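Interim report, section 4.2 (structural modelling).
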Amino acid sequence: MTTAQGSFARQAGGEPSRPSWTARLRTRISHVVPPGQALPDRQPAYVASGIYVFGVLTLAAFLVVLLSGGMLALGGATWWHTSSVGHFANSLHLWSVELFFAFMVIHLWGKFFMAAWRGKRALTWMTGVIAFLGSIGTAFTGYLTQSNFDSQWISTQAKDGLNSVGIGAYFNVMNPAQMLLWHVVLLPLVVGLITVLHLVLVRRHGVVPPFGAED
Amino acid sequence: MVSAVVAEGSAPFVHWGVVQISVANLVVIGLMLVVFVIAVLTPLGRESTSVEPGTEP
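Predicted structure of the assembly:
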């Protein structure tokens, strides 16, 4: 048995027992980011630049992508092709994706020229790379999910490239049902989880300081 | 609507050696570069929220 704080408790024989997995998990979670850094309201002076806004702009656009994608999933293909509200939701999804990628690439440019992998931030950088690549895959499967002539044309063009590298049998771009599920379940799950990990790592290690301002 | 789009023909492209890119995509990339430069040069909240490095709580 353990105390509420997860400290060792004495059993009847006097031997200390190990904290429960709940207590150990709670302790581990509390140490993921330094105290007060999960949602900080103050930042170092060098963060006072517009370039630091593009990470959170990417995140905001991603939320709009998820919400508008949820609307499309509720209405279905007939709805987004024929009704005015469906057209609006479809356009909202497209343009939020366009902004998502534009913001993410500007964020990438900024972090590249800051060499933002410095100071034990390599994993932060790599999770950003994976999020970027996963987003490209999600966007490509989105083109295949439009259910129009455009998606048919793109799938017939893409199949040759994927067949040439031997994955066409497992990732069949001419199978609309498979592409739809990759687009709305598997890839958003990967991008979402990687994004959460990326944000936790940013809060854990802080914003990279400029050259010459390292500790 | 579809026939009107098809009747417009192919989009204008820029050909530069092996590089081929539509004018529309080139304009978007150019605008993103402009936004990037503006973002780097634009101060943001320097007066009210700034904290010297190493002094944050």
